[in-house]
Amino acid sequence: MTSRQNALWFSACAAFLSAVTTFLLWYLPRQYASPANFEEAVALHQNAFYMARLWVNYIHVFLALAAYAGVTYLCYRRAPVLALAGFIAFAFWAFAEALGVAINIWGVNELWRAGYAGADSETQTLIRTSINTFTGIWEGLFFVVLTTFLIGTLSLGMALWHGDTLQRALAILFLLAGPLTLIIMLDGYFGASLSPWIAWSYPVLQPLSHALMGGWLARAAYRAGLA
């Protein structure tokens, strides 16, 4: 196989795996109750489902970025500006989300929450302050995550638009992720109370989009081997 075909197969496999991680990011939070107070939040570091969600989230970022790189490569010749804009946006998305999740895993959970029970009162106050501070920082960082994801998915969606039926279907799913992201932003930051729309549309739209992306990339890899 050529290096081009190998790269496309790699992106296709990453896309299929990202479909699985996308589903898990919806499924795992439903396996534990949201904490009602600070003490319950501190105990989350002992919850296997919660910690699994964080690790899946971290891995998902890199799988998805590898898949988006494949899409960018295939779209670049026809729509270079849109393809490049989309990948740059997704690169910022990946960096911001991976950074936030890594701090959450190692700082918030493995250090602060894990050490809270055995700490003296002064240290507990410091840990509480640190966790509350990170919560505010993460809210701002996640707004960047949503913004860059919105730009990336709309840019690649438009870059994919002119193609055959499979490519057009993938473009539609990318473009539909735009309104979903806006709904999440309006619900989480502007009090729009749109969570019912998120609850049913995310598990339907996002895993399907990643799975179809994997199929489209796999087809391109197969055709590259015939060329």
TrEMBL record:
User: What keywords were assigned to this record?
Assistant: Membrane, Transmembrane, Transmembrane helix
Name the domain of life: Bacteria
- The reply to whether Transmembrane figures as a keyword in the UniProt entry is yes
Q: Does the keyword Membrane apply?
A: yes
Which residue windows are transmembrane per the record? 7-28, 48-69, 81-106, 140-162, 169-191, 197-218
Please state what the protein is called. DUF4386 family protein
Traced from the root, the source organism's taxonomic lineage reads: Bacteria, Pseudomonadati, Pseudomonadota, Gammaproteobacteria, Cellvibrionales
